[in-house]
Amino acid sequence: MRKLIKILDVNIDQANMEQSVERIKELIFDHEKSSLVVTPNSEMIAMAAEDIELARILNSADLATADGIGVVIASKILGQPLPERVAGFDLISSLFKEFAEEDINFYFLGSKPGIVDRAVENLKRDYPNLNIAGYHHGYIDYDDQQKIIEEINSKNIDLLLVGMGVPLQEKFLDSNLKKLKVGAAVTVGGSFDVLAGEVNRAPLWMQKAALEWFYRLLQEPSRFGRMLSLPKFIFLVLKSKYLE
Predict the structure, then answer these.
(1) What DSSP state is assigned to residue 45?
(2) CA–CA distance, 67 with 87 (Å, rounded to integer)
(3) According to the model, what pLDDT value does residue 109 have?
């Protein structure tokens, strides 16, 4: 039985990392449908407050983890504290470890041409027995989509990781998940860039101190505009609690 909280009308699972991995294991073996896993952060939830379609997609997911300290802070403000942040990159890293020696097939879809290739190379080095059945970059048109769907459906994929950025990845899966024969599809944002070594994660101490956003800003100053979504998000959460 899922335990959910609502943050700006977006459902978030009250689950820690271990529980999230267990939930995905359950979804993989649910052969009745292809399941959806999303990883909303504060920017996504603020976006969903203005994008009804995105909000609907996020709320249709079979698992929604709290990707970002802002979401955890919001849960505390609302008096329903989440157990911990379950960042998308950390979640898929846990899945790689969990399934490194298992007969579980992965497919990677997303990022720029060449980036996902390097991500796969690095993963094969770190997890030689991980079953990566296929991959493709995310710069695709309608005809490409149909070919990729056919390829995925021919490979018995258990976990499809989609990293196209928000909201493209969510809307892509909303349009195509019923056509896909996969155990579960997970939205992973820019995780392929990190796996490929294009972007570095913050040192562990900064992650624990909730300063990963600042580290990303130092690496990519162009993200400054996007960072403004965090104070906007907190304002909306406070408004939802005290003014509505």
Answers:
(1) H
(2) 4
(3) 98
Whether the Cβ atoms of residue 230 and residue 236 lie closer than 8 Å to each other = no
Domain tally, the chain: 1
CB 181 within 8 A of CB 157: yes
Query: Is the Cβ–Cβ distance between 163 and 169 less than 8 Å?
Result: yes
Using CA atoms, how far apart are residues 103 and 50, in angstroms rounded to an integer? 41
Inter-residue contact 20 to 14 (CB < 8 Å): no
| Confidence at residue 235, expressed as pLDDT on a 0 to 100 scale | 87
What is the H or E stretch that residue 200 is in?
Answer: none
Q: What Å distances lie between residue 55 and 8, 46, 64, 148, 166, CA to CA?
A: 9, 10, 12, 26, 12
Q: Which structural domain, as residue segments, surrounds residue 89?
A: 4-242
60: left (phi over 0), alpha (psi -120 to 50) or beta: alpha
Average pLDDT, the chain: 90
Note whether 157 and 183 are within 8 A (CB). yes
